[in-house]
Amino acid sequence: LEYADYGLTAGLAKAAYAATYNILDKIAVFLKWELALPESETDTSFRRVWHPDRRSKTLRSEIREKDDPNLYALYDMALELGQPAFKYLGDLRRAITHRHLVTHDWLRMVGEHSTEQEHILLDDLISSGITMLKFVKAALVYLAAYLSQEHERRMHAAQGLVAPLEFWWQDELR
Predict the structure, then answer these.
(1) Which stretch of 3-12, 24-33, 105-114, 122-131 has the lowest confidence by average pLDDT?
(2) Nearest-CA neighbor of 115 among 129, 131, 94?
(3) Is 124 exposed, middle or buried (0-12, 13-18, 19+ CB in 10 A)?
(4) CA atoms of 50 and 45, how far apart (whole Å)
(5) What is the largest CA-CA distance in the chain?
(6) Is 3 left (phi over 0), alpha (psi -120 to 50) or beta?
(7) What is the distance between the alpha carbons of residues 68 and 146, in angstroms, rounded to a whole number?
(8) Cα 156 from Cα 127, distance rounded (Å)
(9) 4: helix, coil or strand?
(10) Is 16:128 a contact under the CB 8 Å cutoff?
(11) How far is CA 59 from the centre of its chain?
């Protein structure tokens, strides 16, 4: 017996986790458009959008020039995804997306043609999904705050030539 769970709950938990993690890459593509970064969209990811190339450790000049604390917070979140405490979140997403992640209901059994990263308890998957939801929620709040401040900067620079854009949800975030 493998005690594997191939039911609807496990499938929905995997799909929700992958979709939640994918939002980070969508944030990266949005920032690529907003900051007019030169990379193609297929090469853009949340962890890589901050550097001019894969080997570089320096922050892009386009981001430094903005000098926005919300962009720095998003950058800090991207750096955290590479730390050991959060690395498992990315490993889990890769297992769901590119391999076959087996969920187990109460006893995790790893087969002979499988690795530890391809097996997880359903409760651990749900817990990791909740952690990922909180992480993405924070990223979306920082993105919304950046957009609000950027709009204010553009309005101030245009000196009344730009129609005001009301953010009715802005007060709800604070």
Answers:
(1) 105-114
(2) 94
(3) middle
(4) 9
(5) 70
(6) left
(7) 7
(8) 44
(9) strand
(10) no
(11) 18
Burial of 22 (0-12, 13-18, 19+ CB in 10 A): middle
Q: What is the pLDDT of residue 117?
A: 63
In the block, tokens 């900051």 appear at: 35
Provide the token pair at 7. 């039911």
Query: How many angstroms separate the CA atoms of 97 and 19, rounded?
Result: 10
Tell me the one-letter amino acid at 97. T
Query: Which residue is listed with tokens 């609807």?
Result: 8
Q: What is the CA radius of gyration of the chain?
A: 20
State how far the Cα of 9 lies from the Cα of 15, in Å rounded to an integer. Answer: 10
Round to whole Å and give the CA distance between 174 and 170.
7
Q: Indicate if the pLDDT at residue 33 is higher than 70.
A: yes
| Global confidence as pTM | 0.79
CB atoms under 10 Å from CB of 93, counted, come to 22
